[in-house]
UniProtKB/TrEMBL annotation:
The keyword Aminoacyl-tRNA synthetase does not apply. The gene is Lhfpl2. Gene3D superfamilies: 1.20.140.150. It is a multi-pass membrane protein. GO terms for cellular component: membrane. Keywords: Fertilization, Membrane, Transmembrane, Transmembrane helix. The chain crosses the membrane at residues 12-35, 96-120, 132-154, 183-203. The lineage of its organism: Eukaryota, Metazoa, Chordata, Craniata, Vertebrata. One of its GO terms (biological process) is single fertilization. This is LHPL2 protein. It is found in: Membrane. Coiled coil: none annotated. Belongs to the LHFP family.
C-alpha cells in the first residue's frame, strides 16, 4: 500500500533540489559568464529613453554562447544578438571549456534526475531496501564534485583566443584582463554550494519520513501523513 508522507524537512529538500537543478541548468545555458571590455558607441547612436548618446556596450561570453551588438547598415541603431558561437562541441573556444562543459553537463544531468525523483519521494521512500533519500543525497554529492571540477577548469580557458578578443591582450589563464565575471558564473558557484547542502539535508529528510511519529500514523491506517 502506498503511503503519502509529507514532512517539512522532506518537502524543503525536494524544493531545494528542484531549485538547484534549474539554477545550474540556466547558468550553463547563459552567455553571461564573462562580461567583455566596453565597446564605445557611435556618436550617431541615440538612447531611445534619454535622447542622448548610448552608453558603451559590454558584450558577454559564455562557455559556448555569446551576446554581442550588431549594426544595421540602413539605420543608425544596433540590436543585441545572443546565441551559440560554436556549431558543434569541437568549436568551443578552449579545451578547458570543453572539459568544463562535460563536467557541468554530467553534474546537471544528475541533479535533474534527482529533482525528478524527489517529487515521488512522497509516495516511495525506499528502493531495494535502500533509502531513496540517501541514494539521492549520494548522487547530489557526486554531482557537486563534477560541478566543482568544471568550475575549477573554466578559468584556465581565459587565455584562449576567443576570450582574448573579449577581454583584451592581458587576459590569460586565471586572469580576466579587461573582463569581469557575469551572473551566470556566480549562479553556478551558488548552485554548487547548495548542491552539497542538499546532499547533507537529504539525511534529515530521511530521518523525518522514518520517525516514530510517522510509523504511528501508518499503524493507525492513515494513507496521507502530513507532519511538521
Amino acid at each position: 500500500m502506498c503511503h503519502v508522507i509529507v514532512t517539512c524537512r522532506s518537502m524543503l529538500w525536494t524544493l531545494l533540489s528542484i531549485v538547484v537543478a534549474f539554477a545550474e541548468l540556466i547558468a550553463f545555458m547563459s552567455a553571461d559568464w564573462l562580461i567583455g571590455k566596453a565597446k564605445p558607441s557611435s556618436s550617431e547612436e541615440l538612447d531611445n529613453r534619454t535622447g542622448g548618446p548610448q552608453e558603451p556596450y559590454r558584450p558577454t561570453l559564455g562557455i559556448y554562447g555569446r551576446c554581442t551588438r550588431i549594426s544595421h547598415m540602413q539605420f543608425s541603431r544596433r540590436d543585441t544578438l545572443c546565441g551559440p558561437y560554436a556549431e558543434n562541441f569541437s568549436e568551443i573556444a578552449s579545451g578547458f571549456w570543453q572539459a568544463t562543459a562535460i563536467f557541468l553537463a554530467m553534474g546537471i544531468m544528475i541533479l535533474c534526475t534527482v529533482a525528478f525523483v524527489s517529487v515521488f519521494t512522497m509516495c516511495v521512500q525506499s528502493i531495494m531496501k535502500k533509502s531513496i533519500f540517501n541514494v539521492c543525497g549520494l548522487l547530489q554529492g557526486i554531482a557537486g564534485l563534477f560541478l566543482i571540477l568544471g568550475l575549477i577548469l573554466y578559468p584556465a580557458g581565459w587565455g584562449c583566443q576567443k576570450a582574448i578578443s573579449y577581454c583584451g591582450p592581458y587576459a590569460s589563464a586565471y586572469k580576466l584582463g579587461d573582463c569581469s565575471l557575469g551572473w551566470a558564473f556566480y549562479t553556478a558557484i551558488g548552485g554548487t554550494v547548495l548542491t552539497f547542502i542538499c546532499a547533507v539535508f537529504s539525511a534529515q529528510a530521511e530521518i523525518a519520513t522514518s520517525s516514530d511519529k510517522v510509523q504511528e500514523e501508518i499503524e493507525e491506517g492513515k494513507n496521507l501523513i502530513c507532519l511538521l
